Amino acid sequence: MTFWDENAETLPRDELKELQVKRLKDTVARCRKSIFYGNRLKDVDESRFSKPEDVALLPFTTKNDLRMNYDFGLVTVPQDEIVRMHSSSGTTGKATVIFHTRGDIETWSDLVARCIVMTGANRADVFQNIISYGMFTGGLGLHYGAEKVGMLTIPSGVGNTKRQIQLMKDFNTTVFHATPSYILYVSEVMVQEGYDPKEFDLRIGFVGAEPHSEQTRQRIEDIYDIDAFNSYGMSELNGPGVAFECEEKNGMHFWEDQYLLEVVNPQTGEKLAPGEEGELVVTTLGREAMPIIRYRTGDLARIVDDGDKCACGRTHVRISRIKGRCDDMLIVRGVNLYPSQIEDVLMSFPEVATNYQILVEREGALDSLTVKVELYPKMFDGDLRKLKKLESDITKSIQEDIVVRPKVEFHEPGSLPRTEGKAVRVIDTRGEM
Amino acid sequence: MNKMVKQLNVFSEDQPGKLDRITGVLADANVNILAVKISSDEEYGVFQFLVDDPEKGFRAFKQAGITVSLKDVLTVSVENKLGSLHHMLDTLRKDNIDIEDCHGFVAGREKKGIIVLEVSDPAAARRILEQHGYSVIGSSELYSL
Predict the structure, then answer these.
(1) CA–CA gap between residue B129 and residue B137 (Å, rounded)
(2) Which of residues 51-80 of B touch A (CB under 8 A)?
């Protein structure tokens, strides 16, 4: 068992909680220096905090708060101490900006290094960072962590798929970081170019930036014959390195010495019982330039353990896969559903390729749900009746899972829109009426 | 060696211009179409092509990014007269051969009827047909019609 920072990663839970309380107090004190929190926290007396749960006495911070206080409203240090700016990917709504001191970059890189080493990767690996650089945190976040670990780091960014494959081949890449949709696309191009995705030296994949299902992970693992690890983070909380899977692959260790985690009911904001699924709310515990208190992430997940020691030896709590976002929940014919549920079903059919799209429309008074899927060319045997049967099998399986009966449409491989960053999987036209 | 005949089955969305694009690929690759069958519903369909060079057609489709499969079929030459298709199918039915797909065309100067069959058990079907005096023709014979 190897660790990047064994002491921090295996800290006994009572010491971890003690550390959280101390850092929470420091964070509140620091926050007061910002314009936004100075006002907000004036009635708070953090000196009375005695346990991590006392964080619930503080107000939430929302994405909208960050937007309204664009640009320096949450910053607690003079501008000359700031060395980096990042911006959220803006998957939903307007972008927000996040600032870092040199110390913040160090802390963040250390967390990412923990994640990397936790998967079994090490300084002997060749790491291809197949993800957007620039203001998106996925690129530089993993880059700094990988260099810290000492890996040969190839900042290949995203796109130019044939060159990505060439780099993997020429430099014997053993570890990559990518979004699930793009790395699956890369495998399709490999096949088109006459390669077997298994023939490369790849052994570990870091898969993140898009919520994805267990089925998708298994598919990536099977296609490349690698171990794939789920990653969680967001620019508001630095970026990647908030939580990551260890070799047990049973939930993502959430770095509690740097982040205080709550799981709340997304409607009421009330704390949920351990193990219940809800919205992740996170307070940064070590950030200097831009600490954030009780940030409403909008991400839905649950805690899979409650401090039971993981077989890997780490004491930090584990969270489930992100089931979806509060704001990407669809309500179709009165039924709540998440795109990830549909993805789960689709990925269990080998005949279906990796790209799909969910279309929600209103036909008269009724919502209609169309699931467009691309066929996987290798599985096509030219029989229309088999396609019809597959169509009805997929329809039934989705209906069993989400109650709503979808219309399943087959499309030619490569015909559905495909993005190299975050895939736009859901189109809901009902709001435009 | 007179090999088993192969048919190209192509998946296509049902949109204007799709068939045109598909036949264009064969034309550009210099592959001649002997017979075509289209099965489709509202959204998508399968085009089946019997061509003079299936391997070449297959590669051309792959290169064009078109979803295609190569399928073994039996091609049976029958007399171009009333009831001959019926008699042949009847023969197969009596021996419990499942017919999955069937189409036909008339070829050559002698205007022979050529029946293209996809069956559950091609080897058995071939034996039965030949026992009953039908001529199952192979690729070289078919392409020289």
Answers:
(1) 11
(2) 65-69, 71
